[in-house]
Design goal:
This protein is mainly alpha-helical. The chain folds into 2 domains: about 30 residues, no CATH class; about 120 residues, Four Helix Bundle (Hemerythrin (Met), subunit A) (Up-down Bundle), CATH 1.20.120.550. It is about 65% helix and about 0% strand. It has 4 helices and no strands. Helix 1 packs antiparallel against helix 2, helix 2 runs antiparallel to helix 3 and helix 3 packs antiparallel against helix 4. The protein is elongated. It starts with about 30 loop residues before the first helix and ends with a helix.
């Protein structure tokens, strides 16, 4: 909370009484799309982490990747998720502030999370290898689309 006169909080002379000199900046804001996306991201992150652990156990690799292809693939799937997801979540939150209740934004968040699951599965290769490509394309298109939408919203 900032006071009109530049104060920072109660200790600086602000209180919740409105007398013309104080500005109460408390806003009851919920971001249901962002909350859902963050929850989904946490669950996917846990799933990817468990898959890394399973590969380590089955391949008897305790630390690092041991040069093992299966462990490397699982670790990269997990790392790739953590490299791309934070920026997308920030853009989702920013756009939800600008466009509360947007069904298009909710759909983008859902497709992005599905793409991240497809990428995680696809990184194992084999018959599900196409999931890697699908997940990569969804991730890149999502980032580009959200960036364009954010720029357009900022300029509006």
């Amino acid at each position: 909370m900032l006071c009109k006169r530049g104060g920072a909080r109660k200790s600086a002379g602000c209180d919740n009484k409105t007398n013309g000199d104080n500005l109460n900046m408390t806003l009851p804001i919920t971001l249901p799309i962002t909350l859902g996306a963050v929850a989904a991201a946490a669950l996917i992150n846990i799933w990817l982490s468990i898959r890394c652990g399973q590969a380590r156990t089955s391949e008897k690799v305790s630390v690092g990747d041991g040069g093992n292809d299966k462990v490397i693939r699982r670790m990269r799937a997990h790392a790739n998720f953590n490299e791309n997801t934070p920026l997308v979540l920030v853009m989702i939150a920013a756009l939800e502030f600008a466009h509360p209740g947007s069904t298009a934004l909710a759909a983008v968040a859902e497709v992005f999370m599905a793409g991240r699951v497809a990428h995680g599965i696809g990184m194992d290769g084999g018959s599900f290898g196409i999931g890697r490509m699908i997940g990569t394309i969804i991730t890149l298109v999502t980032q580009l689309g959200l960036a364009i939408w954010a720029i357009a919203s900022a300029m509006a």
